[in-house]
Amino acid sequence: MKAIEKSGKTVEEAVELALKDLGVTRKDVEVEVIEEPSKGIFGILGVKPARVRVLLREGPLQKAEKFLKSVFEAMNIQVEMSLQENEREVVINLRGPEMGVLIGRRGETMEALQYLVNLSANKNQEVRKKIIIDIEGYRSRREETLQKLALKLADKAKQRGRNVVLEPMNSQERRIIHTALQGRDDIYTFSEGEEPYRKIVISPKK
C-alpha cells in the first residue's frame, strides 16, 4: 500500500495535508499516529509537531489493476489498461497487439478473466464493486451481433412455425437476446437447461 508521512501542528492538520497530497478522502486511508504534538515548556521550548503515517487502502480498482498486471506479466503480453470507477462498478478496457488470446472463443476467455478479477478485487472488501472487462470494444460488437442474430432467428421461428433453439450462452448474452425480442408480439422467448449449458428458445405464438 502507498503511504506517506506528514507533520502538522495537530494530528488532524497532518492528516489533512497527507490527504491533499494523495488526492483522496479520509475513508480511503488508514492513519497511524507516529508522534502526538507537544507544546513543550511554556509553549515555547521543545515544541514538537504531530507526525502521522497515512496509508492508502487498496480498493477494488487498485486490486483489479494489480491482479491483471500479474496475469499479463505471467503471459508475457503487452496490454494497455484504461480504468474507470463509479459508485457501483469498475470498468476496465484493455488494448494491445495480442488481444485475441484474451478474448477467446466468443469471449469465453474474457468472461473467465472477468470472473477471476471480481473474486480477487472484492476479497475482504467492505464495499464490493462489479468489475467489468472489455477488450477493444468487443462487448459492443458482440451485442450488435447477438441482436441481429435474435431478429433473424425470430423470423425463422415464425416462418417455420416451430421453436428455434440457440447455442448455450452466459446470462449476460441471454439477456441481450431476450431484450432484443421483448417487443415482438408474434414470438416469445424463454431459457432452458442448467448453467453453463443454459440456452434460449425462441417460440412462435400460436
Automatic annotation (TrEMBL):
Domain notes: Has an N-terminal Jag-N domain and 2 RNA-binding domains (KH and R3H).
Subunit structure and binding partners: Forms a complex with KhpA.
Subcellular location: Cytoplasm
Main location: cytoplasm
GO-annotated biological processes: cell wall organization; peptidoglycan biosynthetic process; regulation of cell shape
Domain of life the protein comes from: Bacteria
Pfam families: Jag_N (PF14804), KH_KhpA-B (PF13083), R3H (PF01424)
Region spans: Jag_N domain: 5-55
Name of the protein described by the UniProt record: RNA-binding protein KhpB
Annotated InterPro entries: Jag_KH, Jag_N_dom_sf, KH_dom-like_a/b, KhpB, KhpB_N, R3H_dom, R3H_dom_sf, R3H_KhpB
Family statement: Belongs to the KhpB RNA-binding protein family.
Keywords, alphabetical: Cell shape, Cell wall biogenesis/degradation, Chaperone, Cytoplasm, RNA-binding
R3H domain residues: 140-206
UniProt function note: A probable RNA chaperone. Forms a complex with KhpA which binds to cellular RNA and controls its expression. Plays a role in peptidoglycan (PG) homeostasis and cell length regulation.
Gene for this chain: Jag
PANTHER family recorded: PROTEIN JAG (PTHR35800), RNA-BINDING PROTEIN KHPB (PTHR35800:SF1)
